[in-house]
Amino acid sequence: MKYNPDVSSSRRKNRKAHFSAPSSVRRKIMSSSLSKELRAKYNTRSLPIRKDDEVRILRGKYKGREGKVTQVYRKKWVIHVDRVQRDKSNGATSPIGIHPSKVVITTIKLDKDRRAILDRKDRSKTAQPVATEDVEMVDVSDQH
């Protein structure tokens, strides 16, 4: 059931929006989940992936491999991980593209901006209830 009239539920329009998305939107779409340790530490499930993050591949032929992200190839919707490559017939090596949803981030490259993102996404701060003290109920029917 669609609740927001401003959002299309047309498959055709959604695919067009996805595949013609600008780089800034692709960054958000190309997010990876955090490992259990990082999830507990930062209270965040996922983060847009970036170069120099360390990841573990969860799916496909290279499942279980760990390595550093060498390139985030937004145009092709893939990331390149070091030592995940194949040898070509002419002797050169070419990196294998892996979709960011199929990896888990094991080490985050932290800088000022990344730390601000983690602080903003910290769920322990947002999940606290607003009213912590008890409120006394007053019977309204006796006042008239």
Describe the structure.
With 144 residues, this protein is α+β, with helices and mostly antiparallel strands. It has five helices and seven strands. It has helices at residues 11-19, 23-29, 36-42, 112-121, 123-126, and strands at 31-34, 46-48, 54-57, 66-73, 78-87, 93-98, 103-107. It has a seven-stranded mixed beta sheet. β3 and β4 form a beta hairpin. The radius of gyration is 22 Å and the shape is elongated.
The helix/strand class is: alpha+beta
Number of discrete helical segments:
5
Count of individual beta strands: 7
Question: What gyration radius follows from the Cα positions, in whole Å?
Answer: 22 Å
User: Helix fraction?
Assistant: 25-40%
Using brief descriptors, characterize the structure shown.
alpha+beta; 144 residues; 7-stranded mixed sheet; 5 helices; single chain
In brief:
By secondary structure, this protein is an alpha+beta fold. The protein is 26% helix and 28% strand.
List the helices and strands and how they pair.
Blueprint lengths: L10 H9 L3 H7 L1 E4 L1 H7 L3 E3 L5 E4 L8 E8 L4 E10 L5 E6 L4 E5 L4 H10 L1 H4 L18
Parallel strand pairs: 1-7
Antiparallel strand pairs: 1-2, 3-4, 3-7, 4-5, 5-6
